[in-house]
Structure formats: C-alpha cells, structure tokens
Design a protein that fits this description.
- The protein contains seven helices and 15 strands.
- The chain is of the alpha/beta class and 288 residues long.
- It has a single domain, classed as Rossmann fold, CATH 3.40.50.1580.
- The strands form three sheets. It has a five-stranded mixed beta barrel.
- It is globular, with a radius of gyration of 19 Å.
- The protein starts with 28 loop residues before the first strand and ends with a helix.
- Its EC number is 2.4.2.3.
- It is an enzyme of class 2 (transferase).
- Pfam families: PNP_UDP_1 (PF01048).
- GO terms for molecular function: purine-nucleoside phosphorylase activity; uridine phosphorylase activity.
C-alpha cells in the first residue's frame, strides 16, 4: 500500500523532509549527537567526507574511516526530535521513495549516540564514560506506538510505586540497549548505567531557577530507586526515545554518555570539550 504524501513528506529533490537526505547519502552505521556543532568534531576524524547536508538543527556528514562508511547526524535536543530522526532514518533505508511502499527486505542500522549527561549517583566520576544498559523514559514518545512488547513492565511498576508517580504525568517506560552492538564498545573505560530520559533540562531534571518544582525530591527518588541491583545512574534527554524506536523499527542502538555533571556533588567538568572529544575518539576507534 502506498504511503500518502502527507505522511511521508519529501522535498522537491526527493529527499526526506526534515533530514534533507537522499537514501544514498546515509551510511548503515550512524552516530547521533545533539549539538549540530558537534558533527564537525566527529567528522574531522574521518579519512574522507562525501556528504555534508543540513536543514534546521539536523546536520549530517557522511564519510569514511578505515574503509568503513559512517554518518554522523545532529538530532537537536529531546525525544520529540528523536521521533523525527529515527523515523526518517528508517524511511531512508526501508521505504522506496519512488513507489512510496515499504521494502520487503529490511535494512538494519547501527545507531550510536554520543552525548553528554549528568550523574545522579555521587560515586560516578566527572568526565567518565557511561553506556546506557537500560533507559527509563519519563517522556511520552514510545506510548504513541504499539510498544508494550518492548517495555520492561516489572521495572516500570516498581519505579511508579517507589516514586509515588503522579497519574497525571506520562507513565514511565523502560527499554533496553542492543546487547550485540554494545559488546563492541564495552571495556574497562566504560561503565554500564541505567539512564533516565526526561522532557526538559530544568524542572524535569530537578533544576529550579525561579519556578517552584512540583516535587523537590524527585532526583533523590530517582537516585534511591533500585531494582535487582539496578540503580538509575544519570539524566539526559534522548536515550529512551532512541532505544524505543530503534527496537520497534528493527535497528540496533546504544547510548554513550560523557558525564559532565555530578548533581549530588554539585560539580561540573572543568574540561568538557576535551572529555567529549575523548569519548568521540573512543567510539570511532570501536566503530572503525
């Protein structure tokens, strides 16, 4: 069945609407970063760059490193943008734009997020690297899709009970990384974590400048949650959406976090650019 022009929107050059990419522009191994300015900090390590395209906050460089083709794309901030990026990445490889039909043979993408994050456990060092084994989504994205089969219901219910989660908030969902892809990145430089993804940087992550928080103890509740020795380690704004949509679409995804802040210790990295660059080089070394 053909997908209507209002559902799969293409630009005049037949590129996908938001990402501004043609199918041939995309590699099967994709690094996502939040900040468009960080794209060039990744691609500067490529041996060759073939594609540079962008639209709005979505900037893509595709090139080669050690004979491996890699794309790096900026997602902007938040799971609302992840909904756009993951769906359009999948469309580029699994939908025929000429016939507007889904391909019978699917292509699986490897999606590696390189991002920054804040720890909510005092023992997680500044500038360390964390790979999200699980993500708990405090947003609502995955609930808009048929997704119960990828959610860890027992962890979710334990979290709701532990935090006295209000029913007028979106129900938390827990999704897991791709173990096979993660195995390539695990080393003594990486700790595994349980990442909380929320819908904002200030109130949703327990920061208050002038506005009063609905629950001033939320970060403490997150930090004290423990399910079978799994504790929530850090806060950020994309991982649950990436993990959820990647699983639903049949792709492999992991999230690598550079810990720039430690919230309980009220610390922030004195060398954030260098720490992020070290994580970029680590990830590229594992990919290539």
């Amino acid at each position: 069945m053909k997908i209507g022009s209002s559902e799969l929107i293409l630009n005049a050059d037949h590129s996908v609407y938001h990402l501004n990419l043609l199918p041939q522009d995309l590699a099967n191994t994709i690094i996502t970063v939040g900040d468009p300015d960080r794209v060039k900090h990744v691609s500067r390590y490529f041996d060759k760059i073939d594609i540079k395209k962008g639209k709005r906050e979505f900037l893509t460089h595709t090139g080669w490193l050690n004979n491996k083709r890699i794309s790096v794309i900026s997602t902007g901030i938040g799971t609302d943008n992840i909904d756009i990026v993951l769906n359009e990445l999948d469309a580029l490889v699994n939908i025929n734009f000429d016939t507007r039909t889904i391909k019978k043979v699917k292509t699986q993408l490897d999606i590696i997020r390189i991002g920054t994050s804040g720890a909510i456990q005092p023992d997680i060092p500044i500038d360390s690297f964390l790979l999200s084994e699980y993500a708990i989504g405090l947003d609502s994205l995955v609930h808009f899709y048929d997704s119960a089969h990828i959610q860890h219901q027992e962890i979710q219910q334990a979290f709701i009970k532990h935090t006295n989660w209000l029913k007028d908030k979106s129900s938390p969902y827990v999704v897991e990384y791709d173990k096979t892809l993660a195995a390539h990145f695990i080393s003594d430089k990486i700790q595994l974590g349980f990442t909380a993804t929320n819908v904002g940087f200030y109130g949703p992550q327990g920061r208050s400048l002038r506005l009063k928080l609905e629950d001033e103890n939320m970060n403490a509740k997150l930090a004290s949650f423990n399910y079978n020795n799994k504790r929530i380690t850090n806060l950020e704004m994309e991982t649950s959406g990436i993990y959820g949509l990647a699983k639903l679409l049949g792709h492999r995804a992991i999230s690598l976090n550079c810990i720039l802040a430690n919230r309980p210790n009220v610390q922030f990295s004195s060398r954030p650019d260098l720490a992020i660059d070290e994580l970029i080089q680590y990830a590229l070394g594992k990919i290539a």
